[in-house]
Design goal:
This protein has 369 residues and is an alpha/beta fold. It is built from 15 helices and 10 strands. The protein is globular, with a radius of gyration of 21 Å. The N terminus is likely disordered. Bound molecules: manganese (II) ion. Manganese (II) ion (MN) binds next to β3.
């Protein structure tokens, strides 16, 4: 259909209006333009207090696979490119966001966060980091939201901090970097955390870190413990432990978020469903009220962080639907512009794109529309 002058003018005025709102436009299949609010949901930062504690930690011995990352990221002086980016909130970060048309970063303390420190230090670092990040959110509520940290290895104090940050800072969600001193959250001693998250109606982002010591050895060569593979195996394993451990029968409204298109679990759900009843009949796993995949669809959302492949996105859409996928960049470890290009060019409807770019994040993380 040829474009007449009126259509052209309409298109231009829509683009100008979108520009005036500070947003950006994407051409649609029908020749119009659509403005998307782009909320990136797994965006890392750190604080001077955490950096100082990481540097002290790096001086001592530790069997943790994360020590390689701690030493390479936090120790070098002058700071590495990544450390500079993690410490920056309002300078380069905002410039790159503007250039890439990213409206908002949902900030979280970079992995492994406070989970390498003893419980007392972890609690105090989490509180100071939450307060500092909340200051940036308060200053720029259109550009920043945040996920709060706490010390999972002090579950009762963690639950108090969760309540505090919701009351004091209106925080919309939490983050845990997988295992803590090699322990997993399916152990009921941690369940005060899930009880608090469910009661506060705030999700927990289960973010990767390197595999726990019990599964470390095969990951130690070829840098396999990293984001290339080990993160997904570690975090996917953790999420499946939560399902098989009955966490979501006990806390049916609890919502968890997994990055990296679900850390491999969407691909495996049918096989897990096939084997669960066989293993249950053999008395090797506990009774669940539903199939494992039912919990995945009811209690998990996934994000696109660092998985910029349209085939995988479409597969996850068929498994989970557009209401349970959120957009994420994983800045500064992944670049902003390719993440925007990936989603702008995704061969999905504008309605689904709008949910993934912002609608789901607004709903799940209580972000003002
Ligand atoms: Mn990340």
């Amino acid at each position: 259909m040829p474009l007449d002058r009126r259509t052209l003018l309409g298109t231009w005025s829509a683009m100008l209006a979108a520009g005036a709102l500070g947003g950006s436009t994407v051409a649609t299949a029908t020749g119009g333009t659509t403005r998307f609010r782009r909320i990136a949901t797994e965006e890392a930062c750190t604080t001077p207090d955490v950096v100082e504690a990481m540097r002290a930690l790096a001086q001592g011995p530790s069997p943790s696979l994360d020590m390689g990352l701690v030493r390479s990221t936090y120790v070098p002086n002058p700071p590495t490119r990544w450390l500079a980016a993690l410490l920056d909130f309002e300078s380069e970060r905002l410039k790159i966001m503007d250039a890439a048309n990213v409206d908002m970063h949902v900030l979280s303390l970079s992995s492994p966060g406070v989970q390498m420190f003893d419980a007392d230090l972890a609690c105090s670092l989490a509180t100071s980091a939450n307060d500092l990040m909340a200051d940036y959110v308060r200053r720029r509520p259109q550009r920043f939201a945040m996920l709060a940290s706490f010390a999972p290895h002090a579950p009762e104090r963690a639950a108090k901090e969760m309540q505090r940050v919701v009351d004091a800072h209106k925080v919309g969600g939490f983050i845990i970097n997988s295992h803590t001193f090699n322990e997993y959250l399916d152990d009921p001693k941690f369940w005060a955390i899930f009880e608090a998250a469910e009661a506060l109606q705030r999700p927990i982002y289960l973010h990767p870190r390197q595999p726990s010591e019990g599964m470390a050895v095969p990951f130690m060569e070829y840098s396999m413990s990293s984001a290339m593979w080990g993160f997904a195996v570690e975090t996917g394993t953790h999420a499946l432990r939560l399902i098989l451990g009955g966490v979501f029968d006990r806390f049916p409204k609890l919502q968890l978020v997994l990055g990296h298109m679900g850390e491999g679990l969407p691909y495996y759900l049918t096989r897990i469903d096939h084997w669960y009843p066989i293993l249950f009949r053999e008395g090797r796993v506990a009774r669940l009220k539903m199939r494992p995949s039912d919990y995945f669809r009811r209690n998990f959302l996934i994000t696109t962080s660092g998985m910029e492949t349209h085939d995988v996105l479409q597969f996850c859409l068929t498994i989970l639907g557009a209401d349970r996928i959120m957009w994420a960049i994983d800045y500064p470890f992944e670049d902003m512009a390719p993440a925007v290009r990936f989603m702008d060019s995704a061969p999905i409807s504008d309605a689904d794109k709008a949910r993934i770019y912002s609608g789901n994040a607004e709903r799940v993380f209580h972000i003002a529309t």
